[in-house]
From TrEMBL:
The keyword Oxidoreductase applies. This is Acyl-CoA dehydrogenase. The keyword Oxidoreductase applies. Residues 126-205 form the Acyl-CoA oxidase/dehydrogenase middle domain. Keywords: FAD, Flavoprotein, Oxidoreductase.
Length: 389
């Protein structure tokens, strides 16, 4: 599949790798990269460097068109070599997925107002879908959505609660999902807005995304009718437009993170001696690193296979589900073994490996936990089998 990567995509991807390794990795120990992600000051500083290096939003061409999914995979895997790389290069969730959705479904006016500042890296965004489970709201099952939108003249009035909203603190563009009498809808909003209140920013296992993950109360938010994305009732369809490639781009980014963890653990095992020989010469250690190489190669092949499926114009929902399950589980095994190889050093903050472990652990949950994807796949297997009987 690497034969389908253009010289232009390969060149930008290689420049992204050099930039992330040399310019961004040193920021990993910066105190401004805290438990709720890098501060706005640090984001701006890194993005200014990305602009100067001409690697800002590298997966979108200068003319506004996107590279193919296979080419995007090549680029985003490089940006993921540091947990700060996707933030610096503007390939991080939720912005990358939101840009993709707006590019597909937004009107020209909506693109000019909401998409352009995201592509330039001037603004961050948030996607308001998940709701508190205590209120019976939407989590992995968006059909449970409790947030309501009611038409009032030429405005929609939205009320509800959201949670785990990545990047809401500091975002300038929001995509709010709510139910109307015609079904689910998506609305574009300028942030901050006094009707969208952050009640708290959660303490979570991961710490790479700016703004962290917030609980939100939406109280009589008024949105002009022309800021609806598409038509009433198209919200679930647009969610699928966004989610299939977004699952895959998560795999791309965290693949880069796992490669970096493997590099650090391998270097450590080739330097550290115990019981009269290098750690890597002990089968218990060497075999773990070998297993990591196998998991990394299988993950790379799954990512490229799914990307090629989307490039052929196929739906890709089943393929992205399988890829998300396979890659998230494999990369977690890689990160876990890296911690184990490094022993006490692996669980300390003296290297980036312990954070990489935490980040990849969270990846197994967001954009659909493994169990939900397996359940969905099992339903499709049953339907196909019964139809053939």
């Amino acid at each position: 599949m690497t034969d389908s990567i253009s010289d232009a995509a390969r060149e930008i991807g290689d420049r992204v790798e050099t930039f992330v390794r040399k310019e961004i990795a040193p920021y990993e120990q910066d105190p401004r990269a805290g438990s709720h992600g890098p501060t706005e000051e640090l984001v701006r500083e890194m993005r200014d460097k990305a602009i100067n290096a001409d690697v800002m939003t590298p997966h979108i061409r200068k003319d506004g068109g996107h590279y193919s999914q296979v080419e995007t995979a090549y680029i985003l895997k490089k940006s993921g070599l540091s947990p700060l790389g996707p933030v610096a290069c503007n390939t991080m969730a939720p912005d990358e997925g939101n840009m993709f959705l707006l590019g597909k479904a937004g009107s020209e006016e909506q693109k000019a107002r909401f998409l352009a500042p995201l592509v330039s890296g001037e603004a961050r965004s948030a996607f308001f879908m998940t709701e508190p489970s205590a209120d019976g709201g939407a989590g992995s099952d968006p059909s449970m959505m409790q947030t309501e939108a009611k038409l009032d003249g030429n405005h929609w009035v939205i009320n509800g609660k959201k949670t785990y909203i990545t990047g809401a603190d500091g975002a300038k563009v929001g995509i709010v999902m709510a139910n109307s009498s015609d079904g689910a809808c998506m609305f574009l909003v300028d942030l901050p807005d006094p009707a969208i209140k952050i009640t708290r920013v959660l303490e979570t296992i991961d710490s790479s995304m700016p703004g962290g993950h917030a609980e939100i109360t939406i109280d009589n938010l008024r949105v002009p009718a022309d800021q609806m994305l598409g038509q009433p009732g198209q919200g679930f369809r647009f969610a699928q437009v966004r989610l299939a490639p977004a699952r895959l781009s998560h795999c791309m980014r965290w693949y880069g993170v796992a490669v970096r963890a493997q590099e650090i653990a391998t270097e450590y095992a080739c330097r550290r001696e115990a019981f009269g020989k290098l750690l890597i010469d002990h089968e218990g250690v060497g075999f773990m690193l070998a297993e990591n190489q196998i998991d990394l190669k299988q993950s790379e092949l799954m990512i490229d296979w799914c990307a090629a499926t989307l490039d052929r114009g196929e739906d890709g929902n089943v393929e992205s589900s399988m890829t998300k399950v396979s890659v998230s589980e494999a990369l977690f095994r890689v990160a876990d073994r890296c911690v184990q190889v490094m022993g006490g050093m692996g669980v300390s903050g003296d290297t980036i490996v312990e954070q990489l472990f935490r980040e990849i652990r969270a990846f197994r949950i967001y954009d659909g936990p493994t169990e939900v994807h397996k359940w969905s796949l099992a339903k499709k297997i049953k339907k196909k089998t019964l139809a053939a009987m």
